[in-house]
Amino acid sequence: MSNLVGFSTARKTSRAELVSSWLDGGEVRIYDGTRPANADTAITSQVLLVTLALPNPSGTVTSGVWTAEEIAMTLITTTGTAAWARIVTSAGVTVFDADVGVAGGGALVQLDNVSLVTGGYCTVVSFTLTER
Question: What three-state secondary structure class fits 51?
Answer without folding.
Answer: strand
